[in-house]
Design brief:
2 copies of one chain form a homodimer. Chain A has one domain (48-173): Rossmann fold (3-Layer(aba) Sandwich), CATH 3.40.50. Helices cover 32% and strands 33% of the residues of chain A. The first copy, chain A, has helices at 2-5, 24-27, 30-45, 60-72, 127-138, 157-163; strands at 8-11, 19-22, 53-57, 75-81, 89-95, 100-106, 115-123, 142-151, 168-173. In chain A, the strands form 2 sheets. The first copy, chain A, has a 7-stranded mixed β-sheet, with helices on both faces. The first copy, chain A, has a two-stranded antiparallel ribbon with strand order 1-2. In chain A, helix 3 crosses helix 4. Chain A is globular. Chain A binds chain B through residues 8, 10, 13-14, 20, 22, 24, 27-30, 32-34, 37, 53, 56, 58-60, 62-67, 69-71, 73-78, 80, 84-87, 106, 109, and chain B through 8, 10, 13-14, 20, 22, 24, 27-30, 32-34, 37, 53, 56, 58-60, 62-67, 69-71, 73-78, 80, 84-87, 106, 109.
Chain lengths: 177, 177
């Protein structure tokens, strides 16, 4: 599994007991980065999964989502942390382990009725992903699929997303390791 | 100038007197996004400007830099805001209008002696760009060129970068408008 083997694990980051999966070692490698983008492109270029636009979640979702928007000939829309977008926006609060956070999208970024592919690097608790999907739906658009490089199924995000009816695609996963 | 015409200007953001140039309207458009990435690809694919790796500056530099790394078959390395990178890193402080800020890069992200292309969306004062170049040089690598979608020459960043010997490429500019 060449994609998984290029992901670095940093134990006890950001705190004791967490195995942090660091994709920077995968994407700094030209072959690794190309493999990631080509694998996702192959999934979506066939036209079985129809969508109009790609939304990437700040910040690592911008790297993957930007490249994928290019290969698939789509536009790219960023979902950003609070206070980063300059024009009129909709916001969504979501719960973290301690406290809450907010993400935002420009109101005019997505046309009502659009079909959206959401892209991020890693699926853990699914909190950010669910909030991102909520933003798309607030704009009257539909989330066709959420795609990630890495899934951490032990943390439960994928179960949560699927139980709410979302389609999820991931390239690799760390389960019990 | 189709690239420039798709960039939205937001007056008095983030504060009175500033004309904010918003590239989100350019990149959400599939033709606009493709035009940006293809224009940069055309510049670098000929092989006259030789480099080994692409470094993008958080966050909008990730969208452009990620796509460009893909088209040029290079790896991608992020320069991030303070506290975002999980492994050993070097840091660079730089001066803002009020106070200072810090950006960081992983120590093992760039091999000593590498030739680096730095990518970001917009060149204003050049403060972040200079700090990014300093990070590359701290790792013993060379900045071959810095490229941006938008130049704001009235703010003086391009003059500052060029006076320090850096090569700069920009796709479009807003000057006196």
């Amino acid at each position: 599994m060449p994609i998984k083997s290029k992901i670095r694990t940093i134990p006890d980051y950001p705190k004791k007991g967490i195995m942090f999966r660091d994709i920077t070692t995968l994407i700094k490698d030209p072959v690794g980065f190309r493999l990631v983008i080509d694998s996702l492109t192959q999934r979506y270029i066939k036209g079985n999964i129809v969508f109009d636009i790609i939304v990437g979640i700040e910040s690592r979702g911008f790297i993957i989502g930007g490249a994928l928007a290019y290969t698939l000939g789509k536009g790219f829309v960023p979902i950003r942390k609070k206070g980063k977008l300059p024009a009129e926006k909709v916001t969504q609060e979501y719960i973290l382990e301690y406290g809450t956070d907010i993400i935002e999208i420009h109101k005019d970024a997505i046309v009502k009725g659009s079909r959206v592919l959401i892209v991020d690097d890693l699926l853990a608790t699914g909190g950010t992903a669910l909030a991102a999907a909520a933003l798309i739906e607030k704009l009257g658009a539909t989330v066709v699929e959420l795609c990630f490089i890495v899934d951490l199924p032990d943390v439960g995000g994928i179960k949560k997303l699927v139980s709410k009816g979302y389609k999820v695609f991931t390239l690799t996963k760390f389960k019990g390791d």
